């Protein structure tokens, strides 16, 4: 019975049958256009170098081949290193970002916190003005002297003032002040209250900001572009960017063994390049349909202002 | 009823002991408050330190726009001290060059393009998706449309390259296959305003349309029922129920975007055209100009002047747009 009722409310705001088919096709076409480039890249990564050189990139190559991936698996050195840097930066950065952002947000969400207003404004001010790329660059390299360190990839995104404000609203709505008061009367320390009472209640919010942070770190190439010259600290996205401007890097990065195995002349450069793109997209493309729920919730999480 | 007179405390001159006691009480109160607030202060300290180094100090580091800045290996203070003041010279150079006008025009025009395209297309898709009969299919569409939003500009630039590569790209294959001439896309400025608008809008539509979709799904269904009973057809329902319900969000998003009109997406304008020099006329925006000044041309003075110009105008625009939002709908305002 309930089920039937639900359908009837859906009907009321739905298209008629004809229009429904038409608009379905329209939206489907756009949705396909969003997936198509990735499919195209996957096809290119699976094409043989010969067909790529003679026919260019095609949706259906004359010859399929896994040579790109095979070559990639033989390549060690910088590729594995870049993957390692990206994973390290993503894990460490997300942990730092989620911790600092939620502790700050929690403090300024507590009405009993005496300096609440001051620290809220202290954070809000940072959203009004941008210091600019040059000033940030000078402070990072000249004052903090962090050029060419892993921290140059982590610290610029370690705290997100916008997420602090979003999380503050979330804590206010989700965590009842009276629970905290009760725990305080029972003698729990602030640390214990935060970890044992507040955190479990705030899991959806923290999941959302962690998600944004992880995506940001995984996709980041800008900080590497500004601050990284040391080849051992190059993250995956920046390596891809360097290969795009200089495809010969691929053969330079190959280990000796791989070079002898495949012969310098016929390295499947094009396919290998695209195989690397596929590998760097794979974690996101495979996981985001599952975390999309959190993401969509995150869009509305800070919607209510108090 | 008896009038109860509150007993006035006897006014007597304050003795030194009173003063001392009051001081003592105040001190105790202070320490109580410190003890009560310390853990929460500790919680904010990492964030405060970050904001100092990544916001407050950089804001003051903007004084380099008024200096002939030279890096001194002895650190920031030494650099500041050893760089001579030049007043507004950096700004004079910046605004006497053609670049200032070009990058400002490009940044503002592209952003206006993005704002209008995004608004029209995402609202269109949001309304259409809210009316599709098959909800599961709608979810599949949304998931697909969101993919580009989650990918970095480096990846997107590979996507674009697969179509535009001069030797192997799909478009050139199609052109030559049909007897046309291949186009060297990365050296042909006239196509790029279109390409950049297309790619930039394409990447953001999924996100924006889901935002409007959520809002459209929140409309009270009885409104549609009422409209149906009154004999409104589908288009009339959309025009008179759905769109008016979306207008507040549309206004807010547009005004916030106008507040950011001086900020360009660096990745789109640097990465997607692969920083090709022959495209600079149509791809140079404030952010890429500042970056190129900072790194390749090495002119930090002019670059920092451009950065300060961008920040200040951006700040003014943000204040104005927030003021307008607050007048329209104070709950949607940023502050």
Automatic annotation (TrEMBL), chain A:
Alphabetic keyword roster: Cell membrane, Membrane, Transmembrane, Transmembrane helix, Transport
Subcellular location: Cell membrane
SUPFAM superfamilies reported in the protein's UniProt record: MetI-like
CDD domains tied to this protein: TM_PBP2
One biological process term in Gene Ontology: transmembrane transport
Transmembrane segments annotated in the record for this chain: 21-46, 82-106, 118-138, 150-171, 192-218, 271-291
Alphabetized Gene3D superfamilies for the sequence: MetI-like
An annotated GO cellular component: plasma membrane
Similarity-based family: Belongs to the binding-protein-dependent transport system permease family.
Protein name: Sugar ABC transporter permease [Lactobacillus heilongjiangensis]
Species assigned in the record: Lactiplantibacillus mudanjiangensis
Automatic annotation (TrEMBL), chain B:
Pfam families recorded: BPD_transp_1
PROSITE patterns registered for this protein in UniProt: ABC_TM1 (PS50928)
Main location: membrane
Keyword Ligase attached: no
Location(s) in or outside the cell: Cell membrane
Entries under SUPFAM superfamilies matching the protein: MetI-like
Ranges where the ABC transmembrane type-1 domain occurs: 104-321
InterPro entries for this protein: MetI-like, MetI-like_sf, UgpAE/MalFG_permease
Keyword Transport listed: yes
Transmembrane residue ranges: 40-64, 109-128, 140-164, 191-214, 241-262, 306-325
Any one of the GO BP annotations: transmembrane transport
Stretch list, region Disordered: 1-22
Key words of the record: Cell membrane, Membrane, Transmembrane, Transmembrane helix, Transport
Membrane topology classification: Multi-pass membrane protein
Record GO cellular component, one term: plasma membrane
Gene3D superfamilies listed in its UniProt record: MetI-like
Family statement drawn from the similarity comment of this UniProt entry: Belongs to the binding-protein-dependent transport system permease family.
Protein name per UniProt: Sugar ABC transporter permease [Lactobacillus heilongjiangensis]
Native source organism of the sequence: Lactiplantibacillus mudanjiangensis
